[in-house]
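Weekly modeling sync, notes
Attendees: S.R. (lead), two postdocs, one rotation student

Agenda item 3: backlog of single-chain predictions. S.R. asked that every request posted to the team notebook include the full sequence so nobody has to chase files. The rotation student volunteered to paste the first one in as an example of the format we agreed on. Action items at the bottom.

Example entry:
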Amino acid sequence: MSKKKERFELTELFLVKADWDRTFMGTIKREKDEDGRPIIRGAVMVNEGHIYSMAGILEKLGEYMDAICVMKLDRGLHDKVGVFSAICKTKYFLN
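Predicted structure, as returned to the notebook:
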């Protein structure tokens, strides 16, 4: 059975912050796994790169994304050359 395509797609916005002076707007998508449990995926652009995370509840996703933002801005995440992979003609830095 195929799913009927929805007429509208909702996009939820949220803020990721390293501190109150450094905030970035991102998007979240809500899904469910095979067992019906919620999955929330977050994506945000921080300066020149994107960060992604996922969690079962929104508060935990916020904690994860804030922590990754601090690692990117203050602790040099992505500063070192690492492993890059091409997925659908887009270059991703994996660490």
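Discussion: group reviewed the output briefly. Residues 12-94 form one domain.
Action items: rotation student to repeat for the remaining queue; S.R. to check formatting next week.
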